[in-house]
Amino acid sequence: MTDLHLPLDRSAGRLAAQIAAGFRAAVRSGRLTAGTRLPSSRDLARDLDVSRGVVVTAYEQLTAEGFLIARRGDGTRVAPLARPDTSAAPPDGAPPRHGATPRP
Question: Where do the record's region annotations for Disordered lie (predicted)?
Fold first, then answer.
């Protein structure tokens, strides 16, 4: 499992939103890749010293957004379609075409 390093600022608002933002950033940067298994909500709550409900709320939000997949018995993983930010121009230098589907 990857070291998540999710710093929380307890004076800066909702902890669940901060956790979710940290996971989003980790996925977009490529630090967390598709299929990566995340810690259980209990384990992450203990590690971050927050209530389990805070982590459950963050995981549920990220699941609804398509960043995570939760399966009973298999845990919570980064969704297969969650990829790093690839907003840069294509490698061949051609401008991106709107509505075009990239080939594998």
Answer: 74-104
Find, among 70, 1, 67, the residue nearest to 34 by Cα: 67
The pTM for the full model equals 0.74
Q: Coil, strand or helix: which one is 44?
A: helix
**Domains identified in the chain, total number:** 1
Tell me which residue range forms the domain holding 24. 15-78
Query: What CA–CA distance (Å, rounded) separates 8 from 82?
Result: 23
Burial class from Cβ neighbours inside 10 Å (0-12, 13-18, 19+) for residue 92 reads: exposed
pLDDT digits (tens, 9 = 90+) for 24-48: 999 999 999 999 999 999 999 999 9
